[in-house]
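Two entries, shown back to back:
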Amino acid sequence: MTSRRDFFRVAGVTTAGGGAVFLAACEDDDETGGGGASSQERDVRILNSALGLEHTAVAAYTAGAALLKGPALKVGRQFLAHEKEHAAGLERAIRDLGGTPNRPRRGEEYRRQFPNLRSQRDVLRFAVDLENAAVEAYIDSIPRLSSPDLRQTAAAIASNEAEHVSVLLGALNPGDPAAQVPQAFVTGIASVS
């Protein structure tokens, strides 16, 4: 794969306003005519889809670390730790619902699908795209989750992913503080130039 868009296409992630990523497979069964799934089963599917995004982010930050330097490397390590915490929290929630958390793929499977990362800028741009996709997906998941606790967890993770986007945009545009918060609303549909 040669571009971030190719990766997102293969991974089933849409960008630039294409709707939230993983939720196509997690539609409410009553809306899609499936009828049989309980709210717990739907929650497990949604959370496992979110877990897949977190596994992808962990793999991306891990793969990109070799190209990061100085403050960007420090940030990358911090965000990797956050993504691991998100994954662990989602795994706990899935188990609490009686589900089985999806396991991550092997690192090389992710790397084969990543765009060609040759520089720190490539890594940061890819990370912005992943974080934006996560923000969009979590925002779309909130009304589909059945319990206030799960909705609160999704909102908290979406907020943290949006914070990541802001910091990454700052790293991409040093000296331009306005670049860190380019829009008044966080939607997950921001583009990077």
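entry 2 starts here
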Amino acid sequence: MAATSPEATVENFEKIINQMRDVISSRVIINERGAIDEIHVLAGSGRSPKQIVRDIESAFVAHFDVKIDHKKISIAQLGESEERLIGGVRVMLNSVGYDVTRVMGEARVKLEFQGQEALGTAKGANSRLNRLRLVAQATLNAVEEYFHHNCVFTLEDVREVALGQVTGIVVAVCLVTPVNEQVLIGAVLAGENTQESVAKATLDAMNRQFLSLSNGVSD
């Protein structure tokens, strides 16, 4: 639905969202017809994504007379816990390792899915940005191992993002299944160990899809 109010601009959309409790930043994408295609929100962990989505839907109707399809709203939440529930499945980040041999690096990420361990590795050039990418890819490889390679994740991007006085790690991955493909976004506050933060953000990206994937895992 295209916005008709003169106040219905991208700048005002984002201003309203950014004023909401627990929201850190937002990005609104509109199409050539002026209709909202996507809303991406980076938020803290104090409120559930459903609560934030409902607030956005209500605020847009009240302020701009615009109805938003909740499927167009993506919420990425910052989190700090080593152990987390992802889609109802308990996942533990056991360890993150990184070795350097001359100009090459190798990342190793060990995850535990409700008592079952999975190890992912990734090798490549030992550049600063690629170190982050290798850790993210190793995390994805560990998840693929747990799911017996019934799904494939492609790493889209890894970024360190300045958020006021703090730094966040944002990871984008593409989930490819026999049915479709979907881009997923995850984010956490950057901790003292940047590589661990990258692994956590990568896991966070899979939050919404984890349960449906887990249903296809056989014992």
